[in-house]
Design brief:
Radius of gyration: 15 Å
Oligomer: single chain
Number of strands: 0
């Protein structure tokens, strides 16, 4: 059985658009709340990791549920 990330990498999949979208959302959200550049970058990075981590965990759960046991 191939790992899930390898399957995503070899297919033409729109899932990879999540990474720049999450980066843009976290950067714009942080820039609208804070003024200092260092704080914007720090909070945007934290929010980006949170978004990608949550979406990855949901992906793994759904992938495990969809496997034929």
């Amino acid at each position: 059985m191939m790992p899930a990330l390898f399957v995503l990498a070899i297919t033409q999949n729109h899932t990879w658009y999540v990474i720049p979208l999450a980066a843009a959302i976290s950067l714009v959200y942080s820039a609208s709340r804070y003024e200092l550049t260092e704080r914007i970058i720090r909070r945007a990075t934290r929010l980006f990791v949170t978004i990608v981590g949550f979406m990855s965990s949901v992906f793994v759960v759904l992938w495990l549920l969809s496997m034929n046991l």
